[in-house]
Amino acid sequence: MSNSDSSTTKTNGDQFARKGMSNGHASGMGHATVEIQDGKTVVMDDGRKPPLAIVLKFVDVKHTVAIESRFSWSAKRPFQFKRQSAMEKEILHGITGSVMPGEVLAIMGPSGSGKTTFLNLMGGRALRGMSGNITYNDIKYNKALKRRMGFVTQDDVLFPNLTVRETLMYAALLRLPNSLTRSQKIKRAEDAIIELGLERCRDTVIGGPFLRGISGGERKRVSIGHEILTDPSLLFLDEPTSGLDSTTALRIIQVIKNIAQAGRTVLTTIHQPSSRLFYMFDKLILLSEGHPVYFGKANGAMDYYASIGLKPLIAMNPADFLLDIASGNVNDVSIPQELDKSALPNGNDEAIQPPAKDVREYLVNTFNQELAPQERAKLFALESTREELKLAISEKRLWSITWTQQFSILFIRGLKERRHEFLSWLRFVQCIAISLIVGCLWWRSKIQTEAQLSDQAGLVFFIAIFWGMFPLFTAIFTFPLERAMLAKERASDLYRLSAYFMARTLGDLPLDLVMPCIFILIVYFMTNLRVTAAAFFLTTLTVFLDVVTSQGLGFLIGAVMMDVKKATTLASIVMLAFMLTAGFFVQHIPVWMKWLKYVSFNYYVYKLLIKVQYSDGEVYDCGTGCQSVGTSPSFHGIQLGGGGMEAWALLLMVAIYRILAYIALRRMKTGG
Ligand SMILES: Nc1ncnc2c1ncn2[C@@H]1O[C@H](COP(=O)(O)OP(=O)(O)OP(=O)(O)O)[C@@H](O)[C@H]1O
Questions:
Q1: What is the longest distance spanned by two Cα atoms in the chain?
Q2: What's the confidence (pLDDT) of residue 143?
Q3: Whose CA is nearest to atom 1 of ligand 1?
């Protein structure tokens, strides 16, 4: 019945480290020797420090979630809606244990038993609602630990347009320290490709819902490669083998095992491993509806259950047996007397299977009496970690590469990811087609009469609105669409948010400025706008300002909402309000609504464009009805001349919108 792990009973990470860990080709990520001796850092062959040995302990870990509060309605009081108080549900009911460096802990249990929740808590994620104690080398979770952890989530979060090689190469460039040269980092990415058996799909794109790419198993392996490139001390994997054939699954678990043997602490949830896979795990935790029903050596599980009267009656994969009993299903399983008593005879001398609830209760109670006290005793017998290893856990880790390097890698990665978008001829066709339609509608426009002038002002207004709207509705998608990736990378502290923000907001700018250039070149001369070099360049500059301001507003709305639907709705309301107050439709806005005009960037852009077109002091021959332009200092309520104030207002908005978008992104929850 004993499931004790004698080699670890009196062991902690410190002692483990003293033993020295040879990884050789273990992780496959390098050919270095990992050794930590008596707290001295032994540098690996390629110049990196070996991963810090971390002992993970967890005592009485419980997790409670709030179940959404609802409004209730009763027919007796039809006009009264009652808010029901928020209900709480405990989904983990006190789990105790430890995992040592060098060990792989498998977390098993039926669907919904709390495996992912437990893994997340161990990885310092979604800690809200948790009680109990989780320590890493006897220190509680802190942000410095993020970069010592690798987390492979159930859903693979990868860029669909990057190839396998690019994905791993950018991960290596971002994650590995400057003690390695660029070519060494790329070599490590190549090693990962070979180790994970991804050679055949090296240059295939990852793919997504609308883009055919690598297979599901290959995606999973890329996700694992992405995380292990950094040599994390702690590796968490959520169902790394689901959907894979048994050979690929075995290969993955072998890689994971090698990673652990090189001194890492590894936790993985697993659904239905084959027997071969099952016996590769060092430790096992079996969950049943959030209760632990087994904790100990994986290869001791069957003996433990045999000792409490549960044995398969037919040849069975141990994992199938364990999942069956954890679900309360004891078909083809011998049952102990305690459960037999609860079964009622059906009159035909055939015992009825005990109810699943009784089986689960029996497992929980037996575990609490038999194994839980042993595990507790072992945990408390562990020597506490030496001070320097404790300190290493909370020491502020320096970024492995500089801000500028992070920025340039993220910039290039972003361009590669969106290369198809940039080079899409559709965007050019769209821009040229709209330009030609506008050019034809306002063909050789004149300003000799009031009506002609009004028509041309309509064109100027259209330019202001079009280049205020088009980039805005493109920019609002930026952050919501990258939310999952950003959350994942930020949770592992891959880069500074400022580097990502700058790279992402500047990445699209070159192309976003090419489009207005094409538009202006076509429209300006077709529609006969003021043909002087100064007017042409000032118009182009104003449109550029329009583009970057509206982009900033788009980034802000996207970052605040982080949801494409909500962001589009808000953007359309804001744009409509800004457009109506820009000065073309309504000139006499009620005083109490005037503030809207001053926050509308369309208002400043329209004013600037009007000033550029009509501020030359030239007296137009516009007949009797037209005294407005040239002869009058104002047009449509806009004071002609100057323009500095409008340009400054726009520049201020460019900065403010971006700063606010950055703050909104900072506040985004990463789960880390
Ligand atoms: N935020 C939440 N609010 C309400 N219930 C939750 C929440 N998070 C998890 N649960 C519930 O807690 C239980 C455990 O969920 P968890 O995802 O950890 O299970 P699992 O064992 O990983 O399942 P699977 O194998 O299907 O992925 C489930 O019943 C789930 O519905």
A1: 113
A2: 83
A3: 65
Q: Could you report how far apart the first and last alpha carbons of the chain are, in Å?
A: 38
State the amino acid at position 42 in one-letter form. Answer: V
If one counts every other C-beta atom within 10 angstroms of the C-beta of residue 654, the result is 19
Q: Which one, of 116, 106, 110, 113, lies nearest residue 322 by Cα?
A: 110
Rounded-to-integer distance, Cα 286 and Cα 36, Å: 33
Residue 234 three-state SS:
strand
CB 556 within 8 A of CB 576: no
126 lines ligand 1 (CB under 6 A): no
Length of the chain: 672
* Alpha-carbon torsion, ordered 478, 482, 483, 484, to 10 deg: 170
Could you tell me which residues are beta bridge partners of residue 236? 151, 267
In a mutational test of the pocket of ligand 1, which residue from 69, 113, 287 has the highest number of ligand atoms less than 8 Å from its CB? Answer: 113
Nearest CA to ligand 1 atom 17: 116
Spell out the residues 6+ positions from residue 472 whose beta carbon is closer than 8 angstroms to its own. 550, 551, 553, 554, 557, 571, 575
What separation in Å is there between the alpha carbon of 437 and the centre of ligand 1?
A: 55
DSSP 8-state assignment for residue 131: E
For the four alpha carbons of 107, 276, 216 and 112, in that order, the dihedral sign comes to: negative
Any idea where the domains of the chain sit in the sequence?
6-67+86-299+384-394, 403-666
Q: Which residue CA neighbors atom 2 of ligand 1 most closely?
A: 65
Residues 137 and 393 sit within 8 Å (Cβ to Cβ)? yes
Pocket test for ligand 1, best of 61, 63, 65 (most atoms within 8 A of CB): 65
List alpha helices for 476-532, DSSP H: 478-491, 497-507, 509-526
Q: What are phi and psi of 334, to 5 degrees?
A: -75, 140
**Distance from C-alpha of 344 to C-alpha of 627, rounded to nearest angstrom:** 103
CB 180 within 8 A of CB 500: no
Helix axes 216-228, 164-175, angle to 10 degrees: 20
- Give the CATH fold of the 6-67+86-299+384-394 domain: Rossmann fold (3.40.50)
82 three-state secondary structure: strand
| Interval between CA 112 and ligand 1 midpoint (Å) | 5
- Cα dist from 634 to 612, 617, 630, whole Å: 13, 11, 9
Q: Which amino acid is at 426?
A: L
Rounded to the nearest 10 degrees, how much is the dihedral formed by the CA atoms of 376, 381, 382, 387? Answer: 120
Element (H, E) at 276: helix 275-278
> Residue 107: its pLDDT value, please?
96
Q: How far apart are CA 121 and CA 117, in angstroms?
A: 6
Mean pLDDT by 10 residues, the chain (672 residues): 39 40 40 39 50 90 80 60 68 93 95 94 89 91 86 89 95 89 92 88 89 87 87 91 83 87 92 88 95 94 91 89 90 79 52 80 92 88 72 72 94 88 82 95 86 87 93 93 90 90 90 90 92 92 96 95 94 92 80 86 92 66 44 61 86 96 86 51
Q: Residue 41's pLDDT is what?
A: 40
The answer to ipTM > 0.90 is yes
What is the helix (H) or strand (E) element at residue 565, kind and residue range?
A: helix 564-580
